[in-house]
Design goal:
Strand order of the largest sheet: 8-7-6-9-10-11-12
Radius of gyration: 21 Å
Structural class: alpha/beta
Bound molecules: nicotinamide-adenine-dinucleotide
Number of strands: 12
Helix content: 25-40%
């Protein structure tokens, strides 16, 4: 079997491919740079990559392609509808990284509420007076509004509860009873949650419904003391509107792990926005999660290549395709 990878997975994952599998590592997420290698590929493993980069065209050029693996749960980088139409399962790794992302989210909440990043940068410059910036606050007793109460959102909610925060949730795929049953305040409307919460944290997939879900009009309604965190996908918060909201003091701070177009390039105005902490899409890059994601993804791809209907796929309807149903 031939595996093409946009980037190598960790050693533990690579070790699962030591039975004569041919491996090509592109060191690049752009298919233009590995298209040739896809002609006889059986599997494509995609690491972090921009939205929809693995298009129908890429799949159609790979006539032997049996599976696409994602080392994570977000699959916006792959045209899943096209993959399903072609009978190609998109393997994902639910449960492999939720704790890592939840801890990262809490870290951002704590860093923002203690003005940690600015304090370090200014202290290093000799500005001891930054201790009187009056930007610090306690999370205890504040209300965290979680948008998307899936695996990661629930872990974040539980960590917030653990430090004495109140938790509210918005998730249109869960009922009032389900959210209240978890012990959280139910919001039927995302805007109302954003208006009323002190800390807003986003844990939804990037879809046409969630793209630009937080933009100028939502920032205008938020508390001036509010902070917002996005450790899900770039594009869910409108970046230009966020910069304006931060620089004008419309909100108190933001934490971002994810960006439109994936990589934050030099010169991007986010780099100099006020009261913003950011990380390079590294929320799921803990030692533990990296191993979990790589091994789960490789095992899933191997199983699909051997004709097994691996359960952890982006769209289980793929198994209704004649390639799988035998119809
Ligand atoms: N920063 C990172 O490194 C990193 C790592 C893992 C996942 N992620 C992102 O986090 C997202 C969530 O991951 P997860 O494992 O919790 O996924 P999940 O599928 O378990 O949960 C997603 C939740 O979002 C809800 N949802 C869907 N559309 C919604 C909408 N319009 N409004 C509100 N809620 C909505 C779903 O009902 C579900 O409960 C992923 O889609 C991925 O993009 C980022």
């Amino acid at each position: 079997m031939k595996y093409v990878m946009t980037e190598a997975v960790c050693a533990e994952g690579m070790a699962l491919l030591d039975n004569g599998e041919q491996i090509y590592v592109a060191h690049d997420a752009n298919p233009a740079n590995y298209q040739e290698e896809m002609k006889d590929a059986d599997a494509l493993i995609v690491r972090a990559a921009p939205a929809k980069i693995v298009s129908r065209e890429v799949m159609e050029h790979a006539s032997q392609l049996k599976v696409i693996g994602r080392t994570g749960v977000g699959y916006d980088s792959v045209d899943v509808a096209a993959a399903t139409a072609l009978g190609i399962p998109v393997v994902i790794t639910p449960g492999a990284n939720n704790r890592a992302v939840a801890e990262h989210t809490l870290t951002m909440m704590l860093a923002l509420s203690k003005n940690l990043v600015e304090a370090q940068v200014e202290t290093a410059k000799g500005n001891w007076a930054v201790r009187d910036a009056h930007k610090q606050f306690e999370l205890y007793g504040k209300k965290a509004g979680i948008i998307g109460l899936g695996r990661i959102g629930r872990d974040v909610a539980s960590l917030c509860t653990g430090i004495g925060m109140k938790v509210a949730g918005y998730d249109p795929f869960l009922t009032k009873e389900q959210i209240e049953g978890m012990g959280y305040e139910y919001f039927a409307d995302a805007e109302q949650l954003m208006e009323q919460c002190d800390v807003i944290s986003i844990h939804v997939p990037l879809t046409p419904e969630t793209e630009n879900m937080v933009r100028k009009e939502q920032f205008q309604k938020m508390k001036k003391t509010a902070i917002i965190i996005n450790c899900s996908r770039g594009g869910i918060i409108n970046e230009a509107d966020l910069i304006e909201a931060l620089n004008s003091g419309e909100i108190a701070g933001a934490g971002l792990d994810v960006f439109v177009g994936e990589e934050l390039k030099p010169g991007n105005p986010l780099l100099t926005a006020q009261n913003l902490v950011f990380s390079p899409h590294s929320a799921a890059q803990t030692r533990e999660a990296v191993i979990n994601m790589a091994t789960m993804c490789v095992n899933g791809c191997k199983a699909v290549c051997q004709g097994e209907k691996w359960p952890y796929v982006a769209d289980p309807k793929v198994y209704e395709h004649p390639k799988w149903s035998g119809k």
